User: Which sequence fits this backbone?
């Protein structure tokens, strides 16, 4: 099985390039901005991929190809943010004496840093609900639930 066109480029945008060195206390806002920018670019890119999808799968005959692609991209973004992404990513070539890295691993590390920064700014009474460091799956899930509508708007704002 291959990753669909829309999925191959999703992590190449803002999600991998997030700046995690910003410790000004705005991690949750910075994360939302980066996720929304990636969603916006993803929605725009689907305009070109829909033609390729229609050529590759002519029997689908659906007039809702774009809607399906948007829904799947939205699910992919949600899976990435919540730490449930199954796509392994392309491996970079090994450098002498160094481990092979994937964009997924880089993204996973960035998300851990962001969610640690978000957790650090929460009240102690709230922090006690999130004892799953260093992965922060519960915090990631709650962040996604709180921000999914905003991300959805960003994804669909430029899609045709």
Assistant:
């Amino acid at each position: 099985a291959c990753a669909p066109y829309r999925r191959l480029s999703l992590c190449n945008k803002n999600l991998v390039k997030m700046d995690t060195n910003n410790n000004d206390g705005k991690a949750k806002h910075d994360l939302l901005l980066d996720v929304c920018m990636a969603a916006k670019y993803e929605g725009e890119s689907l305009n070109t991929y829909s033609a390729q999808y229609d050529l590759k799968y002519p029997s689908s005959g659906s007039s809702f190809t774009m809607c399906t692609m948007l829904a799947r991209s939205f699910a992919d973004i949600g899976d990435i943010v919540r730490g449930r992404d199954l796509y392994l990513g392309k491996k970079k070539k090994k450098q002498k004496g160094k481990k092979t890295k994937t964009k997924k691993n880089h993204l996973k590390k960035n998300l851990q840093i962001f969610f640690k920064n978000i957790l650090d700014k929460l009240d102690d009474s709230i922090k006690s609900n999130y004892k799953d460091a260093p992965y922060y799956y519960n915090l990631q899930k709650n962040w996604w639930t709180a921000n999914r509508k905003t991300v959805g708007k960003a994804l669909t704002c430029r899609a045709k």
Summary: The radius of gyration is 17 Å. The helical segments are 5-10, 27-56, 65-81, 103-120, 124-127, 137-156. The longest helix spans residues 27-56.
